[in-house]
Amino acid sequence: MSHSRIEIAEGDICTQAVDAIVNAAAEPLLGGGGVDGAIHRAGGPAVLEECRKLQGCKTGDAKITTAGNMPARYVIHTVGPIYRDGQQGEPELLASCYRRSLEVAVENGVKTIAFPAVSCGVFGYPIPAAAGIAVDSVAKFLTQDDTITCVRFVLFGQTTFNVFSACHARLKEG
Ligand code: AR6
Hints:
Layout: E1 6-10, E2 20-25, H1 34-43, H2 45-52, E3 62-66, E4 74-79, H3 90-107, E5 112-115, H4 127-143, E6 150-155, H5 158-173
Parallel strand pairs: 1-6, 2-4, 2-5, 5-6
Antiparallel strand pairs: 3-4
Helix pairs in contact: 3-4, 4-5
The structure holds ligand AR6.
């Protein structure tokens, strides 16, 4: 069952001892605020140096670097859509972030991975809609993959945690 490999947690993604943590980045991959800023601060200059060589990342895609000083081995940088009105392809692009991040993870032998709530901060995606897409996209991927053993959503704040938990609970109920 794919839902049993999904966990919902509250906390700082930078401290997670998983094979890869996912960054909610911007297209240039040169750092920023939010979780992106936290990851670059915790990872140190090695992460930014590697990012510079990647020549950016398109919205909906994902690229990988090492994780510098963090406990994880890798950072998978994905770029979520900026939310406008939900009619500009945002749901498809957000789903693509999760799918592409997991594809890059599998290509690199990652078995445990942590995601933040991509697009739910600066990029303004409404959390209930984003959480549904996030949990459904991951669950769909896991039904076709048996190499990933754990996908943990690591969320900032009780509200976001509760919304993701409710989506996960719905998945369990089938
Ligand atoms: N651990 C887990 N979640 C976090 C952390 C953390 N350390 N810090 C923030 N969050 P955001 P976006 C949550 O804004 O909306 C950057 O400047 C946060 O509360 O980080 O995809 C980039 O460079 C929110 O729920 O990402 C881009 O320009 C979620 O992570 C832009 O922001 C995502 O918020 C990307 O915006």
